[in-house]
Design goal:
The chain is an alpha+beta fold. The protein has a single domain, classed as Sufe protein. Chain: A. 52% of the residues lie in helices and 16% in strands. It contains five helices and three strands, in the order H-E-E-E-H-H-H-H. It has a three-stranded antiparallel beta sheet, with helices on one face. Strand 2 and strand 3 form a beta hairpin. The termini are far apart.
Length: 159
């Protein structure tokens, strides 16, 4: 088995682990905003809630149905943004989005994305990119609705 094959196998293992043992699953209260997103291409669905405490993502809770990629991506999202300040969380979102839209040509930053690097191979399959991004786009909408807009405006202006 080549080094690349070993990495792909490890990434598949990470995705399957998050799929089988999702982190942060279940809808919780309190929450500042709730959104429902559907991927019409494949039927994946998510209802996602965001609770802010000042400029901190105090909680992200969700109920989701779909393929292993969308489910695992949601679990990874929870790990990467829960407890972070809004600016950091939106920075992680931007990094994950760049990875997914890079068609397999973006080198993931493991320090920022942690288990999210496992989705690097998914970026080579355009039909699956929407699956991986479903929860992230729902998070962006819910966080903005919950009042993260001022922090994300500052993030955008700082770029």
């Amino acid at each position: 088995m080549s080094g690349a094959d070993q990495v792909d196998a490890l990434y598949q293992e990470i995705i399957l682990d998050h799929y089988k043992h999702p982190h942060g699953e279940g809808l919780r209260e309190p929450f500042g905003a709730e959104v429902h997103h559907v991927n019409p291409t494949c039927g994946d669905e998510i209802t996602l809630r965001v609770h802010l405490d000042d400029d901190t993502i105090a909680d992200v809770s969700y109920a989701a149905e779909g393929c292993s990629i969308s489910q695992a991506s949601t679990s990874v999202l929870y790990d990467l943004v829960h407890g972070k300040d809004v600016t950091t969380a939106f920075g992680v979102l931007e990094e994950f989005q760049a990875l997914m839209q890079g068609k397999g040509n973006v080198e993931p930053d493991e320090e920022v994305l942690e288990d999210g690097i496992a989705f690097a191979g998914v970026a080579r399959f355009p039909a699956r990119v929407k699956c991986a991004l479903l929860a992230w786009m729902a998070f962006k909408d819910a966080a903005t609705q919950a009042g993260a807009g001022t922090a994300t405006d500052a993030f955008q202006e700082g770029r």
